[in-house]
Amino acid sequence: MAAKMINNVKPRRGDSIKQCFMENTYTQLNIHVVFAVKGRENILTAAVRPELFKYISGILTHTNQFSLAVNGYKDHVHMFFCIESCKFSF
After folding, report:
1. Which of 32, 56, 59, 71 has the fewest CB atoms within 10 Å, i.e. is most exposed?
2. pLDDT band at 3 (very low <50, low <70, confident <90, very high)
3. Contact yes or no for 35/6 (Cβ under 8 A)
4. What are phi and psi of 24, to 5 degrees?
């Protein structure tokens, strides 16, 4: 029996039918943001940082972004998150 062409792609030996389709694509956009306090002053104390990071993570969650990490030190904050790609058009 001859191999059937699917979406102009001829399956190779060992390929599953699922591998020949490109109907469902996957996009993952990870963003790393670093920002500092004005003048890089050490104002983010150990008492403030945990609440600030929870607050930032909550903002990301509320805007349908997936927070991978929110952390920082006395003078800066790191945010690493996954953007919901369907909000953008390329």
Report:
1. 32
2. low
3. no
4. -110, 115
Report the predicted TM-score, pTM, of the whole model to 2 decimal places: 0.64
Torsion angles phi and psi, residue 44, rounded to 5: -85, 85
Sheet containing strand 76-83, strands side by side: 29-36, 76-83, 66-72
- According to DSSP, residue 19 is labeled H
Side-chain-facing half-sphere of 13: CA atoms under 13 Å: 1
pLDDT at site 90:
46
What residues form DSSP beta bridges with 36? 76
CA atoms in the 13 A half-sphere facing the CB of 88 = 9
Nearest C-alpha neighbor of 68 from the set 46, 55, 83: 83
Residue carrying the six token digits 């996957």: 26
